[in-house]
Design a protein that fits this description.
Elements: H1 8-22, H2 26-38, H3 43-64, H4 69-87, E1 100-105, H5 113-124, E2 128-131, H6 138-148, E3 152-156, H7 164-175, E4 183-187, H8 193-199, E5 203-205, H9 208-218
Parallel strand pairs: 1-2, 1-3, 3-4, 4-5
Helix pairs in contact: 1-2, 1-3, 2-4, 3-4, 4-5, 5-9, 6-7
Length: 220
């Protein structure tokens, strides 16, 4: 059932959940999520509509300067917790397989903030995320992705000196005949979309919000 076919009352409930998440109102969002379950509104639809649109709204506030990094962290945590309430009420037999993402800071890079935020946003967007931490060699990414049957490898780099290691992962995948098996997304302070295109990455996120939207698009 799509949003257009819902009763007006139920549409309003989904809209109110979206607004509560954008406002980062934990108590209100949790209460509304529980109300969605009580009124037997499709929880899958609530995830796709309310949480996805909330992520867009939060991204707009971040881009406008109204929200800062701390707001993104709190919003990501809230989306993840609300998503969990809704997801656990989807019948197991009708649940879609979660997309699996392996994420980490590439070899030589010890920065965690951006990488952690992207990991949180991916989880809030329905991905199963395996965070490998920092200073991760190319082969470690590849072996973990193979082990998990991952859909996405997300590579973070905050230093220009470590950006070549993003390219190395892509080159190693190609050399091993695995390039078509995984989508690769890159990001980090000095990384640009033109650089992502140049090294043959499938996607790029300038921030955590864009990274989530990009990951959904390339893994669809």
């Amino acid at each position: 059932m799509e949003i257009e076919n819902l009763a007006e009352e139920h549409k309003q409930i989904l809209d109110s959940l979206m607004r509560a998440i954008v406002d980062i109102d934990d108590e209100k969002a949790t209460t509304i999520a529980e109300k969605i379950i009580e009124q037997e509104i499709n929880p899958s639809l609530a995830i796709k509509y309310s949480i996805s649109n909330a992520a867009i709204g939060i991204g707009e506030k971040f881009d406008s300067g109204e929200y800062f990094l701390a707001h993104l962290v709190m919003a990501g945590d809230l989306m993840a917790s609300v998503g969990k309430i809704l997801e656990q009420n989807i019948p197991i037999e009708t649940r879609e397989r979660k997309k699996v993402a392996v994420i980490g800071a590439v070899q030589g890079d010890m920065h965690t903030v951006g990488k952690n935020l992207v990991a949180t946003m991916l989880r809030s967007g329905g991905f199963e995320v395996y965070d490998m931490g920092v200073d991760v060699p190319s082969m470690a990414f590849i072996e973990k992705a193979k082990e998990l049957g991952a859909d996405l490898i997300a590579l973070s780099s905050l230093l220009t000196t470590t950006m070549p290691y993003q390219k190395e992962v892509i080159e190693d995948l190609a050399a091993m005949g695995l390039r078509d098996r995984f989508k690769v997304m890159v990001g980090g302070g000095p990384v640009t979309r033109s650089y992502a295109d140049k090294i043959g990455a499938d996607g790029y996120g300038k921030d955590a919000i864009e990274a989530l939207e990009e990951a959904k698009k390339i893994c669809a």
